[in-house]
TrEMBL record:
Assembly behavior: Homotetramer.
Gene source species: Olleya namhaensis
PANTHER family named among the record's database cross-references: GLUTAMINASE (PTHR12544)
Coiled-coil ranges (or none): none
Catalytic activity: L-glutamine + H2O = L-glutamate + NH4(+)
Gene giving rise to this polypeptide: glsA
EC number(s) reported in the record: 3.5.1.2
Stated name of the protein: Glutaminase
NCBIfam families: Gln_ase, PRK00971.1-2
Family annotation (SUPFAM superfamilies): beta-lactamase/transpeptidase-like
HAMAP family linked to this entry: Glutaminase
Enzyme class: hydrolase
């Protein structure tokens, strides 16, 4: 039987002293305050066991990890109608790339790049009565944790420097693929990105995708087929123009965020979250990717 506790703690102690840790995101001023030395790992096994190392219980800004959570709610609302407004192909481009969006008539390549997530945010602004409060409640419910909250300073900070996302939203609006006001949708989007969660809370939230759509409380939030599709999109698009590399190195569906978090899962087996704020050139956590590569290589647990 695999000794997950030893494996995770060895990976943590091997990597925590790496000299090259990547660079903390600075284009959102609040995020630049993060200490590059934070490093946490949390594993939630489907048999109920949990394993952790380092800063697994320190909250961080989940940023683009939230795109999977909004996607799951939009799929639950819209099912296959969603795919008329956003595609499911990897973009091969950075998360904030705009020229493909113009070339492809305002249909974003997938829901996990910024433009696609802004369309998903627009759908939730239409479907929810109180978008920010209702989405927060959804995240609290699937995580079984009522203490999760937005970091309002991070949301305000991103809004101040959010020129690229304003450009994406305006482009979507010009193609008729944004139904609500740009300001309303981006206010929601900046807040979803500013959700603050620990590695442990993120792993609990993503349990729903490893468990065929049923959350930790055994409530069905998306169908089995919808959970399959969400995992497929994470596998092919979860790491922007490094999605191929992540599949090659780690071999699990997953999602990263510029706060330095990564969550990955093996359906019916486990969810694992890492947090190390230093990013590589593609905007993914440098140490987090190495930790997950070591984890699946040492355990032989991947979808392949
Ligand atoms: N890759 C990310 O985590 C990007 C999210 C960030 N809030 C942005 O919109 O730029």
């Amino acid at each position: 039987m695999l000794d997950f506790n030893t494996i995770i703690n060895n990976i943590h102690s091997d990597l925590k002293n790496e000299v090259v840790k990547g660079v903390v995101a600075s284009y959102i001023p609040e995020l630049s305050k993060q200490d590059v030395n934070h490093f946490g790992i949390f594993m939630q096994h489907m048999d109920g066991r949990t394993f952790m190392a380092g800063d697994a219980n320190v909250p961080f800004s989940i940023q683009s990890i939230s795109k999977v959570l909004t996607l799951s709610k939009a799929i639950a609302f819209e099912d296959n109608n969603l795919w008329t407004r956003v595609d499911v192909e990897p973009s091969g481009n950075p998360f904030n790339h705009l020229s493909l969006l113009e070339l492809e008539n305002g249909i974003p390549r997938n829901p996990l790049i910024n433009a696609g997530a802004i369309v998903v945010a627009d759908i939730l602004c239409t479907q929810f009565k109180n978008p920010k409060a209702d989405f927060l409640q959804y995240v609290r419910d699937i995580s079984n944790d009522q203490s999760i909250n937005y970091n309002y300073k991070v949301a305000a900070s991103e809004k101040l420097t959010g020129y690229n996302n304003y450009a994406a939203a305006n482009l979507l609006k010009s193609f008729g693929n944004l139904h609500n006001d740009v300001e309303v949708v981006l206010d929601f989007y900046f807040h979803q990105c500013a959700l603050e969660m620990t590695c442990a809370q993120v792993a609990k939230a993503f349990y729903v995708f490893a468990n065929s759509g049923k959350c930790v409380n055994n409530k069905q939030h998306v169908t089995v087929s919808q959970a399959k599709r969400i995992n497929a999109i994470m596998l092919t698009c979860g790491f922007y123009d490094e999605s191929g590399e992540f599949a090659f190195e780690v071999g699990l569906p997953g999602k990263s965020g510029v706060g330095g978090g990564i969550v990955a899962l093996l359906p019916n087996k486990f969810v694992i979250t890492t947090w190390s704020p230093g990013l590589n050139a593609k905007g993914n956590s440098l140490i987090g990717m190495q930790a997950l590569e070591q984890f699946t290589t040492q355990t032989n647990l991947s979808i392949f």
